Every structure is written in structure tokens, then in C-alpha cells.
């Protein structure tokens, strides 16, 4: 089915988005229209789930953990990372749980030898080519699936991938693992693009483009292993179409996109999420009333996110809500 170009105002009205209306991390429940129940077998349990649900929806409702990277609760599935692959009886290949809809009589296995082997390989390929040090949960998955990204050899020497001449990827000589390493792009005061951590999940492109922001400031440039996220002609962000909404940061699963504050504090060794508090409030800049979650450390705002289950913004903000908080902590004495 082709994606609709009309932006849905509510997730449950969009046939291409996941139909369930609950955030995976808990939150609001919008019952929407009643739907027929579909019966299937999930890890030897006979269960029912609303028609139109994905396998991932059904797993989540049952408390079955399926690892995901490119899936986003505010975005249409992209099927890019292949972390969520499960076995479906009668299917020759593994199928992505994040996008495959359930059908009557479907028999699904989420934790078989084949799915575990597939996830191990995905983790090894991603881990050998991208820096996953700030990807939540990935260390636990590596241990659980016995992934060893180091078996492909040490990382190849870094280079600026934007400088590579377009064309075919040079075949590696086998002694080192090809990587997506490149210097972090620090070209503005608000956020940093560290594409050495990019797994090319496309979530930022979708958030920036027709699924939410409609700025189309970023897209995929290059092909094959040279494919990378880029502005037009690799222009610095201030010279691009970017409006600094930060909605790309909100959905990035690896920390490739981050607040400049976070990037600087990580470099200084002062970033410590265990010491951070989160306070959800309402943005005061205009009457739309977006929810903002302020992440504070040592009584300073260090990052701003937005609840994905908010019916106002669905996790999206504009530049004011996302970055316009410096005045709050400007404690210069008045003249
Ligand atoms: S900040 Fe907004 S406009 Fe800029 S690249 Fe990210 S999503 Fe696009
Ligand atoms: S920058 Fe982040 S959101 Fe964008 S493709 Fe890379 S990993 Fe995905
Ligand atoms: S989470 Fe399903 S393919 Fe990435």
C-alpha cells in the first residue's frame, strides 16, 4: 500500500500507521472505532488482537519484548533496521514485526533460533559500522544475542564521507571493518549531527518531511554503503532549509542527532542521566499549548523533549518550544 500524503491528525485514522492508540511506553488510550478481533498464535499462546494491528502491537499488548530501532511510535514503519524480525509459519523469510499486520490463524514465533541469529547478525553489522555507544538498550541486546561486532576486524580509518567522490563503494580488503565514521557536524549553537552514530533508519527524514514537519531539510544522499543523511548539497545547517524544530532529534534512536548542550556535556564528561529530572509542562510561547518535557541537571535545562502521546504535538515542537529556554536560566544580575 502506498503511504498517504495527507497528514493524519490522529494516528488511529491513518491506515498506514500502527492502529493501536497506546504509546508503547504507556500513555493515553483513544478507543477509536470498534474493530473486529483477529485470532492468532503468538509464541504458543492463542491470543486475539484488533484487526489492523501489527505483530509488534500484539506483542506489546502481551508484554513480549521485540527489539526495535527504526520503528517509531509517531511514525509509519520504515522496515529499515530489521531488528524486529520474527518467524511466521508459512513464510519463507523472516518478517518485520513492526509493520506486518496480523491475520486470522497466523502463527508467530518471536524468539526462535532463527530470529535470534538474525538479530545477532543485524547487531554485529550495525555495531561494526556505526558508533552505538549512545543507543539505549543496545548493550543489553548485544549480550542477549551474543553479538560480536569486533569479529569483522578493527574499524577502518575514519574519513569525511561527504568528501567521497560519488560512485561505487570501494571494496574493503577484509582486514578492517568499513564504518560510517565521520567528524561530528557542529555548525550551529542548537544541535549537533554526529553521523558516525547513524544507522540510516530514516526516522529523521520522515519527521522532517511529509510525516510531520514538511521542511524537507534532510534526505538520503548517495547509494549503497555510501548512503547517508544530508542536507541539500551537504550545506551547513544554517544555510539549509532547516527550521530548527528538533523533531529529527526527538525520533533519532542512536543519539546521532543531539542537543548541543548534551554533545558538549558528553565531551566534558558531565552528562549524567541518573542525575536528571524530567518535568512535563506546557510551552508558554503561543496558544497552541504543546507539551514540553524539560530535562534538568543541576537545576539547568539540558534538553527538551515532548511526550509522544500528547494529542497536541505528538512529540513534535517548533524551535521556540524545543530550544527557546536559555532565558529561563540566564541568571545575570539585572543592571
Ligand atoms: S530540526 Fe526540523 S527542519 Fe531541521 S532537519 Fe530537523 S526536522 Fe528538519
Ligand atoms: S540521524 Fe538518527 S534518525 Fe536519522 S537516519 Fe541516522 S540514526 Fe536514524
Ligand atoms: S524496527 Fe522493524 S524493521 Fe526496524
From TrEMBL:
Keywords: 4Fe-4S, Iron, Iron-sulfur, Metal-binding, Repeat
SUPFAM superfamilies given in the database record: 2Fe-2S ferredoxin-like, 4Fe-4S ferredoxins, Formate dehydrogenase/DMSO reductase, domains 1-3
Domain 2Fe-2S ferredoxin-type stretches: 36-114
PROSITE patterns linked to this entry: 2FE2S_FER_2 (PS51085), 4FE4S_FER_1 (PS00198), 4FE4S_FER_2 (PS51379), 4FE4S_MOW_BIS_MGD (PS51669), MOLYBDOPTERIN_PROK_1 (PS00551)
Alphabetized InterPro entries for the sequence: 2Fe-2S_ferredoxin-like_sf, 2Fe-2S_ferredoxin-type, 4Fe4S_Fe-S-bd, 4Fe4S_Fe_S_CS, Mopterin_OxRdtase_4Fe-4S_dom, MopterinOxRdtase_cofactor_BS, PSI_iron-sulfur_center
Ranges of biased composition (kind: Basic and acidic residues): 1-27, 158-172
Presence of the UniProt keyword 4Fe-4S in the record: yes
Residue ranges of domain 4Fe-4S ferredoxin-type in the record: 233-262
Residue ranges constituting the 4Fe-4S Mo/W bis-MGD-type domain according to the UniProt record: 276-332
A Pfam family it matches: Molybdop_Fe4S4
Keyword hit for Membrane: no
Location of region: Disordered: 1-28, 146-175
PANTHER family membership: HYDROGENASE SUBUNIT (PTHR24960:SF84), PHOTOSYSTEM I IRON-SULFUR CENTER-RELATED (PTHR24960)
Record's protein name: 4Fe-4S binding domain-containing protein
Species of the source: Saccharopolyspora antimicrobica
